[in-house]
Inverse folding.
């Protein structure tokens, strides 16, 4: 645990005017892109990363965190108003948010989403601040064999929980590890697989690959899908009467749903690969099972349904950083993008951060709490503005986003080679998504590839080339056993779902 003076210094760095301004800008941008269906905070973070190069590391990372947090609420706005979630996380919010808006209370539904989002996010951040440092201390006690086993265990979870096929998830992970071998061998320093392009001596650019596969590929997909989607009716935010106000008693009446959602979101968010969408639907189901209480039925505009989903999907954000800061393994796409920001500023993510960059980390914790407050204030003041943002034409949005991608990658990689790599990654990401291969598994494996290779080489030396020597490392043996159980369990669950779907299709025919 860092000294109190370092913690206070980090918090002092967070509450500076420059950091406050960039956190507020990030939250506002996140709410705006979250309110536009198909854009979302992940794409905005990917585009913004190269432009943070000139900023102080804390300000840059705080800005990206603000985008992510603002997008958590922004996605609920179109879910409430046009029955279309701005982000996948808000899909469950449509179940009660849109019916409540249709009944003439769109402002009340949006405000309940805002308050629940901020509540769940704050709870998750407190858990992160409490657990990250002890978990990092435990990770530093591990040797190469244990670290290798931990990575294998993480890959088994991520590959099994992201996407519909465990096999495709594992293939994506292997492909990411193979891409990580491009460049200099970390053990001998000899170049590999650079194919005569000296720009690949240091490996493929993480920024170019991430922006290409996550942002540009998604823009291509949205452009293709935009022609098929018809216009959606929009509910206007009108009438500031008593029916539109959210009283404190109504908010307090949802405390059990928000507490349950925050707990579920925090727990699932700490597990790499689960995601906020699953947390939202699990929280909604648990709240519905717990009882209706006062008000309309679930699915007909119940405030508890909105509170349950928004508190859960927002709580995932802070919890996703627990494995990233504690053991160096990103738990989500947002966490993987934050790794790019760390590396742009010459900072290697992982448990050593609490020794080498403790002041920066506690500054980040302070910025996260500040972003929650900004999310609340900006969301209250700009609710009607985001409704107009929803109506922005896609013919303006997507070309602008593509332009930012090109400029950002060009600046971060220092030339057109990075732009070409981005376009190649975009094509690969588009094809992978179309074929059902999870892109996020590929990205996480690509980032962890160097560490995985180093841990594997060191483990082979320690074990004298004998894999059975892992018996002398009980922690590693336990992690490998858990990885095997995870693969069998998740693989069987996915086969059952496929069989059920096949049987259902047969009956429908």
């Amino acid at each position: 645990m860092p000294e109190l003076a370092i913690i206070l210094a980090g918090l002092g760095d967070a509450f500076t005017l420059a950091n406050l301004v960039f956190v507020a800008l990030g939250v506002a941008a996140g709410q705006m892109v979250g309110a536009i269906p198909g854009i979302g905070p992940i794409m905005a973070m990917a585009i913004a990363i190269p432009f943070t190069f000139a900023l102080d590391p804390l300000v840059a990372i705080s800005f990206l965190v603000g985008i992510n947090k603002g997008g958590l609420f922004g996605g609920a706005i179109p879910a409430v108003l046009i029955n279309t979630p701005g982000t996948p996380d808000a899909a469950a919010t449509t179940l009660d948010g849109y019916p409540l808006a249709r009944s003439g209370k769109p402002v009340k539904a949006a405000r309940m989403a805002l308050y629940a989002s901020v509540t769940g996010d704050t709870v998750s951040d407190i858990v992160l601040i409490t657990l990250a440092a002890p978990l990092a201390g435990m990770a530093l006690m591990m040797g190469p064999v244990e670290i290798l086993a931990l990575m294998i265990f993480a890959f088994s979870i991520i590959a099994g929980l992201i996407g519909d096929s465990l096999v495709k998830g594992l293939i994506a992970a292997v492909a990411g590890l193979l891409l990580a071998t491009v460049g200099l061998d970390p053990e001998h320093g000899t170049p590999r697989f650079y194919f005569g392009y000296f720009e690949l001596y240091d490996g493929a650019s993480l920024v170019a690959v991430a922006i290409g596969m996550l942002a540009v590929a998604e823009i291509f997909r949205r452009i293709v899908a935009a022609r098929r989607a018809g216009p959606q009716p929009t509910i206007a935010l009108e009438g500031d009467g008593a029916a539109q106000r959210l009283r404190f008693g109504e908010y307090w009446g949802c405390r059990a749903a928000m507490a349950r959602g925050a707990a579920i979101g925090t727990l699932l968010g700490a597990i790499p690969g689960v995601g906020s969408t699953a947390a939202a639907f699990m929280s909604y189901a648990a709240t519905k099972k717990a009882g209706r209480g006062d008000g309309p039925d679930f699915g007909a505009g119940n405030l508890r349904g909105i509170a349950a989903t928004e508190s859960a999907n927002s709580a995932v954000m802070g919890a996703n950083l627990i494995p990233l800061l504690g053991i160096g393994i990103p738990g989500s796409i947002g966490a993987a993008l934050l790794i790019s920001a760390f590396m742009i500023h010459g900072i290697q993510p992982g448990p050593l951060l609490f020794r080498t960059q403790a002041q920066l980390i506690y500054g980040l914790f302070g910025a996260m709490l500040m972003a929650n407050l900004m999310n609340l204030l900006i969301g209250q003041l700009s609710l009607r503005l985001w409704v107009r943002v929803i109506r922005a034409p896609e013919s303006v949005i997507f070309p602008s986003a593509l332009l930012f991608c090109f400029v950002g990658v060009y600046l971060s990689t220092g030339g057109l080679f990075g732009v070409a790599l981005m376009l190649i990654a975009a094509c690969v990401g588009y094809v992978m998504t179309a074929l059902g291969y999870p892109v996020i598994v590929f990205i996480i494996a690509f980032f962890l590839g160097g560490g995985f290779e180093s841990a594997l080489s060191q483990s082979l030396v320690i074990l004298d080339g004998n894999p059975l020597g892992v018996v002398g490392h009980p922690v590693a043996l336990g992690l490998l056993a858990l990885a095997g159980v995870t693969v069998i369990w998740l693989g069987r669950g996915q086969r059952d779902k496929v069989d059920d779907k096949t049987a259902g299709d047969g009956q429908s025919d």
